[in-house]
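Hi Y.,

Following your request, here is the sequence exactly as I used it, all 165 residues.
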Amino acid sequence: MSFISAWGLARIATNGTRQLRSLNGLAARSQQTALYSTGAMEPKESQKGSPASSASQSDSATTNLGSRTHSPNQLEKRMLVFTKKYKSIDEIPALINQDVMERCRNQVRIKVANYMMIGTVIGCILMIITGKKAQERGDTIQKMNLDWHKEYNEKPRQETVQSKN
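Below is the corresponding structure, written out as tokens. Let me know if you'd prefer a different format.
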């Protein structure tokens, strides 16, 4: 705060009272932020016991409850069992905390990505093995291409010969 005050005083000396008003607003905002972040601010005594304040607190609690819970569908229930949050689908409650569901989705995403990477590596290894076996047999892409062209050109020739006869 001393840096802001020293900076503010230097600006006031050069720019006048207009800066003073904005500096006061900045200081007030920083004090309010400090009070909110430390939790030092408490409700007024008149609001603590009033029934209207308890009703508004319960409304905010249910609003908070509704915004932080999630009703999982069948796929999400399977994901919760897959990530071992619950032992079976029957044990999953009707409402789950949204944070738990998001963590579960992230874990499933990571697991699926890992399984896909493992599958890709296994597929690459299998393709290398089959390619080497084909090379030993003498099968090449060039040979397959020549055979296809020969067959492709042979069919029209046979059709023209049969049509002439």
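The first strand starts at residue 69 and ends at 70.

Thanks again,
Q.
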